Amino acid sequence: MGAPENGRYPGQVGIDAYGNGGFRFADMSHKGSLLCLPEGMQGWSVSTAAELTLESLSPVLAQAAKLDVLLIGLGSDIVAIDPAIRQALRDHNIIIEATQTGGAVRTYNVLLAEERAVGAALIAVEKAR
């Protein structure tokens, strides 16, 4: 893989830790929310589930052909996902699973280890659960 380029890690790796407002992966620390996609891992401007929109998920849609599953870590709470978002992802044959960020991180790591076509959109949390 390699070092981050332009705030983006050029590959997809497991997440070693989360909490304190960020994530640890590939011997690095990232502050804020995170998109984990086949073409790389990058910061994500979404900080609450209310900010989850089709526009905020546009990087996911741009890589839709490389994804079967998208895990959405909603932070500390679980909220309903906008039906328009569910339909747009379904139209791209992407299954979505929305849960608390901790559960999404754990499931992402398992599916990635199984070499599944998985992505994650993870809202940063302060406390790991």
Structure overview:
This protein starts with 7 loop residues before the first strand and ends in a 7-residue tail after the last strand. It is built from three helices and nine strands, in the order E-E-E-E-E-E-H-E-H-E-H-E. The protein has a single domain (8-122), classed as 3-Layer(aba) Sandwich (Hypothetical Protein Mth938, Chain: A), CATH 3.40.1230.10. It has helices at residues 58-62, 83-91, 101-113; strands at residues 8-9, 17-19, 22-25, 28-31, 33-37, 40-44, 69-73, 95-99, 118-122. The strands form two sheets. Strands 1-6-5-9-7-8 form a six-stranded mixed β-sheet, sandwiched between helices. Strands 2-3-4 form a three-stranded antiparallel β-sheet, with no helix packed on it. The protein is 21% helix and 29% strand. Pfam families: DUF498 (PF04430). This is Mth938-like domain-containing protein.
Biggest sheet: strands side by side, in what order? 1-6-5-9-7-8
| CATH homology-level superfamily | MTH938-like
Biggest sheet layout: 6 strands, mixed
Strand tally: 9
Which residue ranges are poorly predicted, with pLDDT under 50 across at least 5 consecutive positions?
1-5
